[in-house]
Amino acid sequence: MTHIYNFSAGPAVLPREVLAQAAADMLDWHGSGMSVMEMSHRGPEFISIYKAAERDLRELLAVPDNYRILFMQGGGLSQNALIPLNLVGHKPQPATVDFIHTGSWSAKSIKEAAKYANVNVAASSTTSMPPPSAWQLTPGAAYLHLCTNETIDGVEFCVDPGWAAPQDAVLVADMSSHILSRRIDVAQYGAIFAGAQKNIGPAGLTIVIVRDDLLGKALPACPSAFDFKLVADNDSMYNTPPTYAIYIAGLVFQWLKRQGGVAAMEERNIAKAKLLYAALDADDFYQTRVAADSRSRMNVPFYLKDESRNDEFLAGAKARGLLQLKGHKSVGGMRASIYNAMPLEGVQALVDYLNDFAGRR
């Protein structure tokens, strides 16, 4: 195979330039004589890596000064627990958390939050964005939780949802699988979190962007190492952070800036998604189940009309160097994840294969 295109939902494809730079730095970072993996997280070498990563991410997302950026261990599932542990303590107990349920990750978030608060599912749809007119919100809720891009089900909030929420609502967004793929208005949110392993870097790192006034609200049961205020007060160094993952994330941020930033990436992602969905819509040999105005640009689930040919489809894709196209086990079918690091050429190669395979009926 001369070209491999990795469509994995996560851990996902990384830019080749980033991998090449990491390989070059592996044994000796910038003449320090050490690999980044060997550095003290409190030493000047790593502190410079951390500060650059934090600065670049703040620039890429235009994060306002009254928000803190935290680099923490874990992933989306861990943050599903840490968000309520950190944000419901400022309300009389038991507090209520509102959710917009749009798929598998929303469901996981709801289940986890129910351990720490009352949960109200304010609206639900796994095939489209529920219209704000249908949201049944709780007055005085601790916050309103959205998964703004459902990695498994392929539903994406295609506009910032803050305009639809009450002014006094604290909007919390799980952006794990589309952060940095499109412009967002951070100021509409109280907190944003994202697992790194889709659009940022290796698994094991999570990014939290949280407004200053929401710090110091943790429940007493919240472990110290996961208290957002303690993490913020210690510049993500309260305990040993995932240093190598932060380093790779920093390289990705630098790569994004060289590409023209988030606005330029959004234009590319629109083009890639249009190309792929047009191929899927052109023939009823393939089926999609998400409403056209709610389709994810990052995660594209689709199904063969004749699902008895799934194994044949996957084998043929692998032979062409198109990898990790099998859908999540909970929903079946196929899924192509076309994150920032997936080039247009990779999407075109998949489209060519879709057309060829449909022609064999």
For this structure, what is the CATH homologous superfamily of the largest domain? Type I PLP-dependent aspartate aminotransferase-like (Major domain)
Our Rg estimate from Cα atoms comes to: 21 Å
Strands of the widest sheet, in order across it, are: 2-8-7-6-5-3-4
| CATH architecture classification name of the largest domain | 3-Layer(aba) Sandwich
The CATH topology annotation of the largest domain reads as Aspartate Aminotransferase, domain 2
The overall pLDDT average reads 93
Q: Quick one: biggest sheet?
A: 7 strands, mixed
Query: Distance between the terminal alpha carbons, to the nearest Å?
Result: 26 Å
C-alpha geometry? globular
Q: Strand portion, in percent?
A: 15-25%
Describe what you observe in this structure.
With 361 residues, the protein is α/β, with parallel strands linked by helices. The protein has 2 domains: 17-258, Type I PLP-dependent aspartate aminotransferase-like (Major domain) (Aspartate Aminotransferase, domain 2), CATH 3.40.640.10; 261-358, Alpha-Beta Complex (Aspartate Aminotransferase, domain 1). It has helices spanning 16-25, 44-60, 76-87, 104-113, 228-233, 243-258, 261-281, 310-319, 344-358; strands at 5-6, 67-74, 96-101, 118-124, 143-147, 171-174, 191-195, 204-211, 286-287, 299-304, 322-323, 334-337. The strands form 3 sheets. Strands 2-8-7-6-5-3-4 form a 7-stranded mixed sheet. A 3-stranded antiparallel sheet has the order 9-10-12, with helices on one face. β3 (96-101), α4 and β4 form a beta-alpha-beta unit. α7 runs parallel beside α9 (344-358). The longest helix is centred in the last third of the chain and has 21 residues, at 261-281. The two termini are 26 Å apart. The model has no long low-confidence stretch (mean pLDDT 93).
